Fold this sequence. Notes:
mainly alpha; globular
Amino acid sequence: MHEHASAARRVQWPERRGDVLNALQALADREYQEQHWRSGHGWPDLTAAVHWLIDDTFIDQAGARSLIPQLFRDEQEADHVQLVVNALLRVLDDLGPTAPDHAYLDHPAWITVLHAADAALQGLSPAKENP
C-alpha cells in the first residue's frame, strides 16, 4: 500500500519538473537577481526562467492543474506554481517581452513574483521529490 501511494505521487516528466524548479529558484532569489540579472551576467537569466516556467509548460494557456501528474503531484503543487505564473504574467504584460531585466526587477509587482516563487519552491521542495 505504501509503495502504491508513493508511485501515485510520482511525476511523469521529472526532467521538465527540474526546469520548473530551477526557474522557481531563480525567481525566488532576489540576491541572485540583483547580482546577476542587473549586470546581464549569470545563468539562468530571466529569459531562461520565463521559458522554463511558462513557454515550455504552456501553464499560461492550459493552467498548472492540467500538468498533474506530468509535472505536479497534486493540486496544491499546481496551485502554488499557478500563483507564480499569474504574478509573472502581470509584470510581463505591463512591460512587454523586450524590457531589460532591471525593469522587471524594479516593477512594483515584482515582490509578488518573489514571494510566490519562494512559496512554490517550498511547496515543491526536493525533500518531497520522487525517490
